[in-house]
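JOB MANIFEST
job_type = single_chain_structure
chain_count = 1
residues = 448
[input]
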Amino acid sequence: MSDYDFDLFVIGAGSGGVRASRVAAAHGARVAVAEEFRVGGTCVIRGCVPKKLLIYGAHFAEDLSDARRFGWNVPDCGFEWTTLRDNVLGEVDRLEGLYKNTLDSHKVEMIPERATITGPHGVRLASGREVSAKYILVATGAWPVIPDTPGAEHGITSNEVFHLDRCPGRIVIVGGGYIANEFAGIFHQFGSHVTMVNRTGTLLRGYEEAVRDRLLQISITKGINFRFNAVMEKIEKNEDGTLCVRFADGDPVACDTLLFATGRRPHVEGLGLESAGVEVNDKGAIKVDDYSRTSCESIYAVGDVTDRVQLTPVAIREGHAFADTVFGGNPRMVDYSCIPSAVFSHPPLAGVGMTEAQARNKLGTVKIYTSDFRPMKNVLAGREERALYKMVVDATTDRVVGLHMIGPDAPEILQAAAVAVKAGLTKQDFDDTVALHPSMAEELVLLK
């Protein structure tokens, strides 16, 4: 028998922690996982899943309007936020149950308490119980950042937005990243007056410039307001509960709800990392090597709590690789190249590989192929909204090194196309593939 209570103690039952727990247990390890809130983590409980369900709900606004052009006698429809909200939260409850069942079926001990590290092999639970483990895995994720602005306590974050009592008539969204743009599209479709506030002049930094410019153009056309290079001075709460957001320059903005989407920081506060000599970087992220090991040999970390890629599928792969490495006798690392990503805005955008600017800096000579078109459905619906696909090619080898697109179903199309980019296929390989007509995806093999 081991000298420890567990072979593995996982702190955090999100996507990475659950995967690591399940796989380690399948390799024969005695595993416990502590979670102070709910099983499923950010993605399932207050992130990707409930947000995507809101996005599906928001799409009906345009779909119902478009249906009339396709012959459907659709009456004027009202929207009930509480119905969607409650159904989404019910689905979150169901998924949490499935995650718990997965842990139970693999005989992982689930501990619904906060856990802190007391040393290289020690953990203390909120109840006072002390446990020991041969290995400890930190998978506590990240937490929304709230700006240090007077009156910021009157705002909410993506943690609370799913629980609003009512759909706001006016909402101010602070931030320019994917979370801000997604919620801007959601609430605009629900009928809210949306103002996006960004401290810089750039949306979606890191994405292909032509694609993010197209999203801005479409968003403005739809009626979303933007305040760029805006520095918030203070937030005031009025007697009727409404808010007034004041800026260093320009007119103030009145709203019913203020949503902060200004980034996320690793959730390490009070975790006890210093007791085991676990090092963090200047942003508070846990430093790890290629196998997710920290500066303490017995402690590992995966997911958003580290300084790597903050995406759910990446956390899952890191958790799986960790378990295979430590408990499965199969040391392996995660490949972070060519990771596809998407923004579920209205319309959505997606990309994989290098942007044009990145490719020019790295490769020197590149070829660019684009297709700027009006999707067939938009034509009949009377919408002027255009899609844009862009392919970045290494001019020396003809290899496709980047694909970027904005338009209906862009993420669904890109997932399959990302396989081709990852495999190193050439522009000629795309050209040699017969188009699937009529479809939007066929534009990928017809790019000029």
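[summary]
The first strand starts at residue 6 and ends at 11.
The chain has three domains: 6-143+265-327, 152-262, 347-445.
exit_status = 0
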